[in-house]
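Backbone shape codes:
***
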Amino acid sequence: MKRYRTILLTAAAVFLICFGLFAWITKPQSRRDMLRLNDLAQTVRAYRTHPEDLDGCQLDTALLVFNSEGFLIYASPDAPDSVRTLSEALGIGWLCIPVTDQGTICCTAAIPDPAERTLAASRRNLLTGFGVVFAVMMLTAVSVWLWLRRRVIMPFRNMRKFAENIAQGNLDEPLLIEQNHLFGSFAESFDIMREELRAARQREEMLKAREKEMIAALSHDIKTPVTGIKLICELLCVRTEDAYLRGKIGSISAKAEQINLLANDLLNTTLDTLGELNVSCQDMPAGVLAELIREHDTRSLVTADAVPECLICADRNRLSQVIGNIISNSYKYADTPITVRYAFSDGFLSVSISDQGNGIPEEDLPKLTQKYYRGENADGKDGSGLGLYISCVLMEKMNGALCCSSGQGNGLTVTLLIPLS
């Protein structure tokens, strides 16, 4: 309220100053000095017979003297030369003063009308007053506009930009408005709200991260008992000759493997979300690939060419994860023999893993490496659609690539491009 009171008082003071200037500048002056006019008439009467002697008098004004017939008999040096008769003097607005002698008009004196000069001066003063008042008002208006722009408009713009940042989720940029502005307290409140929102978001992100870390830990811990179940199933299969029991034990082992795959998918997805799908590449002989393929070919369906003698740069554990995902998918969806071929391609060792299943339509091939995508042949089969997506991410992190190719009815080929050392 104090600021508004100051504004009103300032505006009132400016108005009063402008009004006073206008009243002083346009103050009317005395129009005619009758005593002075009478003295002038007496002077002209005294010199009517010898009007040329008026040049020696202090008249302080232009003077024309006309005889009783209205013709010019005297003109002061500063009088206009164009006026020769009394009617012409009246035509240009001069004040004509009859000069009498014993009640008879003997001549007429004409001088510029003081009222006209006063009026002209008043007009000039009026125009000057309007100019001064207009200038003062314009200066005041510009000052008020600059003040409003700095104190009101710009803070509003900053608050609008701040609201846009909040709507876009940008909670790190503060609202910069000085405390002594009109909206300083509001700005401080909005900035406190921003800080609280940012703190709430940080708490939410922290809770989500902890939740994902807990899921990752549980997924990892689940793998240990599942591995134990599979080993016990293998041991029981060796110890019993009963075909029925062998079938049941095989079913348990298959379910345990499904749980293991789901736990792997869940673990990898969580790690990917947390940004912890890390790789540590190092040089190793390409013969490692044969070991990894034998390790994951639990059903002995893979036929592989000889591995070329070369050095590759990769992460052995992540490469094992990729190969295991590809072979597992082939078991699950194709259930046919698998062929592995090797070739060199522009600084990469190309590893092509092919099955003999029904293949994938050409338009669906780019979707195979997308998160959560599962094709038509996945109906009724366990899975999350993350295996090839995670494998593709891991290959890219190892500076390689994973690509898929297929022909309808000709099986699916997954090609790994592994960088050479």
Notes: The mean pLDDT is 79. The radius of gyration is 55 Å.
